[in-house]
Amino acid sequence: MKRHLFAVITLAIASISLATSAPANAREYRRLATNRFDQSCTNMRVFDNILEAECLTRDGRSVYTNIPLRGIQNINGNLVVNSNNPENNFLASCGSFSVRGNELHATCLTGNGDFKDTFIVLNDIDNINGRLRYRDGYRYRYSNANYIIPQMY
Q: Are 95 and 88 contacting, i.e. CB atoms less than 8 angstroms apart?
């Protein structure tokens, strides 16, 4: 009788555990509910004026997404955001781009011809279910459609 009761309890616990467990990535997405892209996206890079990344969806899939960067200017070797002007000028005078967390790093030309390492914080971009999007209030709100990245086993 004790063995039968133990087996029934063990089976019930295992069933509940299986029913309530989500894929690790889905749990991670929910844990990072702030939607900050730097906390739920990987392999981020800048190509021309496009921020590209692999981002988690709510169900834990990793998908490719991108969003155009808007209003970033090089002012005397410093990256700045000009929300009144969606055009970018940083591409012509900056290089060596990298994304570290939510920061865009670059080496930019100064007014006197020197190069300067600089960065800007990309505060207005979120991961919304695997898509990079600008937060409400910014004139460019959404990115392209996302594409599923095949899992490598």
A: no
* Residue 28, φ and ψ in degrees, nearest 5: -65, -40
pLDDT (0 to 100) of residue 4: 52
Exposure string for 73-90, b = 16+ CB within 10 A, e = fewer: bbeebebebeeeeeebeb
Which residues are within 8 A (CB) of 48 and not within 5 positions of it... i.e. 6 or more apart? 91
Query: Is 47 exposed, middle or buried (CB count within 10 Å of its CB: 0-12, 13-18, 19+)?
Result: exposed
Residue carrying structure tokens 């200017």: 73
Low-confidence ranges of the chain (pLDDT < 50): 5-8, 10-23, 29, 32-33, 137-153
Given 3-state DSSP classes, what are the helix, strand and coil percentages for the chain, each rounded to the nearest 5?
A: 25, 40, 35
> Tell me, what's the pLDDT at 27?
56
* Predicted pLDDT at 25: 60
* pLDDT for residue 33: 46
* CA max distance for the chain: 87
> 96: helix, coil or strand?
strand
Quote the pLDDT of residue 15. 43
In terms of Cα–Cα distance, which of 134, 102, 136, 133 is closest to 119? Answer: 102
